[in-house]
Design a protein that fits this description.
Blueprint lengths: L3 E4 L3 H14 L2 E7 L6 H5 L2 E6 L10 H10 L4 E3 L9 H9 L3 E2 L4 H8 L1 H11 L14 H11 L3 E9 L2 E6 L5 H16 L4 E5 L5 E9 L5 E13 L2 E7 L6 H17 L4 E9 L5 E7 L6 H8 L3 H9 L14 E8 L1 E2 L5 E2 L2 E2 L2 E3 L6 E5 L6 E2 L6 E9 L2 H14 L1 E3 L5 H7 L3 H5 L6 H4 L7
Length: 448
């Protein structure tokens, strides 16, 4: 087991990793920007190192500074959390070169699965269902036109280096393709420095359902069931739940088997997620793989009583997984509490939290790094907490979430709590009859 782990992240995920490390008897090192000097992860880690100014490009994304922090504190492993450098192949390789264990995927694995076009080809070779589309990258608009005609509209143009919805365009008719092609490429070039595109058949009435997997160094993998992440705004998840209200035992087995097949085909080591689109007929198609821990991992932990961060660390230290497939015994829902104004197009709301009251009681979990007096900086992701409720049934989990949201008081900044309260009473959501298009028809008229 490792002696000391440096957490190359901030906020709630840094706190989350520190807590498990403490329970395992492993020392921790926090790194922080000048904007995060008063953050809780700095206070609760055994050691802390400032790695630069507020801008993430000069701190949390500055690889030399993080490696230097690991070396001066004698950390023998680095946990990257999610976001920032968690899926950066160069960072993984540099850690290896400096004899520091990267608690995540190897450089080659990130390269293999990080590029969406190559990941799709890999999954096809593994026998995992993939969305019909172009074989690799599109060479020209002419090729895109030909493929769209072959598969039939609607189609989806996607940037191979994409993420967060950037470089994606739905095309419903042939005369819309050229404009979509140009705008998607421009956006992808600006966001990722790469305008390479591929095309897929657009899945109508889709669900976004992901399977949590863990693999070890022997090539064995297991799955920990599904999470439904279909409630999204601009391809950013707002809330997640497990089990999915759309899932059947037959579909769960098929998707779980496919995810394990995918992980074992590439000999995946660590915690990861295989993401699928599921159509209204319950056909499922590989979408992408995330080679890191997910924001929404707590709901999986809640329904199977399993510490995913602990498992990540154990696997990285060379220990074997149990090989068991886990199925949810309870129902869990997560609401992402962001410092955003849902009445003003979810505009970010940084500032000082003047008063804070966190809900409690049976079946309530809160992962957060904020406190009364905490200053939410404008430089990073706006998520300030994850509120998780767990109960025997979905109906009970929703009722518990409503009660917890009503108890959750954050003053001084706007938050998404009013949005989540309305969502929990929405008839379509309550029935579990939602798709990734849910937010397009959701009314944002929220009473204060």
């Amino acid at each position: 087991m490792f002696n000391k782990i440096l957490i190359a992240n901030r906020g709630e995920i840094a706190m989350r990793v520190i807590r498990t490390c403490k329970e395992m008897g492993v020392k921790t090192v926090a790194v922080y920007s000048k904007a995060d000097a008063d953050s809780l992860h700095v206070r609760f880690a055994d050691e802390a190192v400032c790695i630069g100014p507020a801008a993430s490009s000069e701190s949390y994304l500055k690889i030399p500074n993080i490696i230097a922090a690991a070396e001066i504190t004698n950390a023998d492993a680095i946990h990257p959390g999610y976001g920032f450098l968690s899926e950066n192949a160069k960072f993984s390789k540099i850690c290896e070169e400096h004899k520091i264990k990267f608690i995540g995927a190897s450089c080659s694995m990130i390269d293999q699965m990080g590029d969406k076009a190559s990941a799709k080809a890999t999954m096809k070779a593994a026998g995992v269902p993939t969305i019909p589309g172009s074989e690799g990258l599109l060479a020209s608009l002419k090729e895109a036109t030909s493929i769209a005609k072959e598969f039939g509209y609607p189609v989806m143009l996607k940037a191979t280096a994409g993420g967060g919805g950037k470089g994606m365009r739905a095309v419903w008719k042939a005369d819309e393709l050229e404009k979509a092609w140009e705008s998607a490429r421009q956006e992808a070039k600006a966001a990722f420095g790469n305008d390479a595109m591929y095309m897929e058949k657009l899945i109508e009435e889709p669900r976004h359902i992901e399977i949590q997997i863990v693999g070890d160094s022997t090539g064995k993998a297991c799955h920990l069931s599904e999470r439904d992440c279909s409630i999204q705004r601009r391809h950013q998840k707002l809330t997640e739940e497990t089990p999915s209200p759309f899932m059947t035992n037959t579909l769960r087995k098929k998707m779980g088997d496919a995810a394990v097949k995918a992980a074992e085909h590439i000999k995946y080591e660590g915690a990861g997620t295989i993401e699928f689109l599921v159509d209204k007929h319950r056909n499922f198609y590989f979408m992408e793989m995330n080679t890191r821990i997910q924001v929404e991992h707590p709901i999986t932990e809640q329904v199977i009583e399993f510490d995913l961060i602990r498992e990540q660390i154990k696997v990285a230290a060379g220990q074997k997984i149990t090989g068991k497939h886990y199925l949810p015994r309870l129902h869990s829902i997560e609401c992402r509490i962001n410092a955003e104004d849902p009445l003003n197009d979810f505009r970010p709301s940084p500032g000082v939290i003047t008063n804070l009251h966190l809900p409690g009681g049976h079946g309530i979990r809160i992962d957060t790094h904020v406190y009364s007096g905490y200053v939410i900086p404008p430089y990073y992701d706006s998520m300030i907490a994850k509120l998780i409720t767990t109960a025997q049934t979905r109906e009970e989990a929703i009722s518990k979430m409503k009660r917890a949201l009503e108890e959750f008081i954050v003053e001084g900044v706007k938050t998404t709590i009013p949005f989540h309260l309305k969502l929990m009473s929405d008839p379509t959501y309550v029935k579990g009859d939602y798709t990734t298009k849910f937010m397009e028809s959701f009314s944002m008229e929220i009473s204060e």
